[in-house]
Amino acid sequence: MGSSGFLGEFEQLVLLAVVRLGQDAYGMRIRREIEHRAGRSTSIGAVYATLDRLEAKGFVRARDDSSGGRARRFFGVSPTGMDALESARELQARMWAGLRTRLRRAGRKA
Amino acid sequence: MTPPQLPRRLLHWLLPGDVREVLVGDLDEEFERHVAPSRSRLSARAWYWRQALRSVPGAFRLRRQARGRAGGPRGPRIQWLVEQILGDVRYGVRRAIRSPSLLATVTLTLALGIAAATSVFALTRVVLLRPLPYASSDRLVHISEVDSRRLLSSGTVSHVDFRDYRAQNSTLVDVCAFDGGSRMVTGIGQPDRVPMAEVTEGFFDLLGVRPALGRDFDAADVHPQSPPVVIITDGAWRRRFGADPLVVGQTIGLSGQQTTIVGVLPRDFEFPLRGLAELWLPLRSAEVQPQRRYPHSIDIIGRLRPGVSVAQATADLDVIARRFASIDPQDHPATRTAIVSLSDKVVGSVRPILLVLLGAAVFVLIVACANIAGLLVGRGAARLHEIEIRSAIGASRGRLIGQLLTESLVLAIPGGVLGLLLGQYAVRLFVLSIPRAQRAALPHLASFSIDSLTVIVSLALVAVSMIAFGILPAWQAARHGDRTTLHGRGTADVRRLRLQSLFVVAQLALAVVLLSGSGLMGRSVHRLLTTSPGFVTDGLLTARVNPSFFDAPAVSAYHQRLIERIGAIPGILGVATVNQLPLSGPGNNGTFAIAGSSPAGGGLTGPAKESTTAVRTVSPEYFAVMSIPLQQGRALSVEDRRGRPPVVLVNETFAASVFAGRPLGHRIVFPFLDGRPTWEIVGVVGDEQIASLDRDAMVPVVYFPFGQVLTGDINLVARTSGDPEMYIHSIRAAAMAVDPNVPVYAAESMNRMIADSAAVFRRRSVLMLVGGFAVAAVLLAAIGLYGVLAQTVSHRTREIGVRMALGARRGHVARSILGRALAPAAAGLGIGMAVALVLTPALDTLLFQVPSRDWVTLGLVLGFLAIVAVVACIVPARRAVRIDPVVALRQL
User: Fold this and answer.
1) β strands within B305-396, DSSP E
2) Chain B: nearest CA to A79, how far in angstroms?
3) Is there a contact between B26 and A45 if contact means CB atoms under 8 Å apart?
4) What is the pTM of this model?
5) What is the pLDDT of residues B39-96, one digit of tens each?
6) How is B678-747 classified by DSSP, letter by letter?
7) How much is the CA Rg of chain B, to the nearest whole Å?
8) Where does residue B676 rank: exposed (0-12), middle (13-18), buried (19+ CB within 10 A)?
9) How far is Cα of residue B657 from the mean position of the Cα atoms in its chain?
């Protein structure tokens, strides 16, 4: 992973959750979004550690807000982050291109 | 619902400052808004715990990332260490789960050892280490009077002596006296005989106890003419009065006397020296013959003044006691006082028992640890590859040992927890199994509980045993990591097997010690149960009756009708009475003098101290019913009653020690009997144990005929055909028919009375526990031995194959394998024998007619363990001789 433009799988999940939640993207919501939509159980600690790294890479921006009675940290995806998501999707699409039928055939043979 | 605090704090502490509030706030919000409302309390809290614990790695990543960005040094060393340990723990858990059979073996073995150690420790803690439940209990003392010239000194004092000690001492805050017995309670429910204690005024104050309801006794209460009063225990108040808050002021009948309840003792009150007493009455001087120094029947306790030692108090009271000798030379010829702390008086006799049990339990724990250590060393071999790699990529030996120790900690946790739980239940069960009278005689057992010290010690035991069984294997394995490349695996294997053999030696040695201890106890209990107490115990029923009327004709008439009624029950072969049942404690004794001039060969042949004898009052049939043989002269008969010449029988010991075996025709005088009649000895009967089975020496006894010395204490002995306890119901019914106000109580067979007696119970409990520990140790040692040999065989498969291919005979191979295994076995047995010879004298006070260095027991133990060792070796040895050379060589 490193600080290049590539995204790890979990990083993608977190970024997508932030995009989906829009204005409401803070830790607890993001964790629940991943759990409900991806069906993948995860800890709040892992979510924050990933958001921290994404922020360091410049893919998300954080904004602290205490208007809800307690301190919350809201996240938004930066333009670089959007680019990274886009290129991750393209990368996948390129690698998948033409493989579906072949996989299906291989499945039949087995 | 609020989130559980412990995981919340943990997480808070671990997180770096900038995300701490927001992250924990998010977790709390989810918990409160989404989780708590939709789940049970338990499941919601479990969810929080899971989240917090699973967030720990994330927290560390956050810290690392923050550090990386700052480009600064590593965070505080402690954090780094926690991270490393958590990593090891995670790894350990994964490994433990991956080898469930090892986990199960370690868990069960350790649970056994921990359960044994914690249960015995819990008991020791409560009985021996916790102070008695009184104010400044360390300054409370028990004072007894001993007279070197009296044969049967029970340590009690006379009422006059007590008053002198109380008035004349200068070292004690106060001195109080107590006595005990039982009273017939009427006026609430069925008439019932209830154990009671009598105490002088100031007794509860001396202990620092105040009644929870009502008042304490005052000086007026002990006055013989005052209206009778009683203080009841909390237990009696709840059971007998339904915890009635208005109980103070009510009256009950106590052995025919209307008595006012003036107080209720607090719930936690206990006095083990009168453990069963439910009724506490004022000890009245008139009832204990105020002017006579002779009757010694009361116990005294005192409270030392601050700064006064037991020795100073003893010196002080001895001065008073010496004065008695000049006032009363006949009954106090050489009186001294013996002062011990009250707690020594209460628990002194069980201390050696508990220490023996504690030692045995610790041995079991050591055996368990040695066994697990052997297993782990064996496993270390399987991990050699992994350790080599870790070492090669730069793990230091310290780091490797740390990791392996953490793994053994992880392995130890389930066994430790299971052991703690098992130990708790085991000790509770054990406490419940103690006969009621024995339990009441020990402090804190009525409300037995496991306190925090016990838990802490138990946890420390788990940790210590984990290190004990983890350190050697870890060190050994880490060493392999360093050296394998130099020495090759063969050397490492040999060293590993040598270490394992060492553990087997230790286990076998301890098994020998435990087995010898239980063997000695077993032989003692057997001796105790088979030794003849001087009468035939089978088919003997005992019961107690205490009529509450005291005038002689009434008692006499009641006695006669009772004997007739019970004797008429079909299946009752004979019935008699005695004022104190045999084996029920020291009981009455008295001094006597030989009357007038005596026939040739008479006179006191022994030293003067033998002018004290135990005394019993029996009905004429007593000796026939008990099967005690008449050896000289005649038996007692119904003709020996008031108005006829006073006669007594004496036992063999009395006849031998006082009259050189020829007592017939001699006359003796007992100063304590009114009118000082002269008693002619008309017969000699065989000896019987009167006080307790475990007294080695028989004591002299004089038997008065019931017709001439009436007593209010009537104990029945009946010879029955078949099981004596089948007759309890019909005997009760017969007694009811004679007088419905005099119930029969405490009916049981003589054999049950013996089995429940302190003499047997104490040894039997030690036998059961140490025996159980020994069985566990033997099993573990056998498994350990088997494990080492099985590994030896698989390690030497190739070598054996080569040998057999070169023509070695099977017998030779078997001998070489067995020799390898039996050498540590022999060493273990030898060391065990030496240790047993050193340690078994600790059992001395518990042994009965068995020497503490008993070669028979030791021989049997060694023989048995040798057989166990051979059996444990047979399977691996057979596997060795069945090795197919072709298959073995192919592995080369």
Assistant:
1) 335-341
2) 22
3) no
4) 0.73
5) 999 899 999 999 998 998 899 888 888 877 776 555 566 667 777 777 888 888 888 8
6) EEEEEEEE-----S-TT-SS---EEEEETTTS--S-EEEEEEESS-GGGGHHHHHHHHHHH-TTS-EEEE
7) 36
8) exposed
9) 37
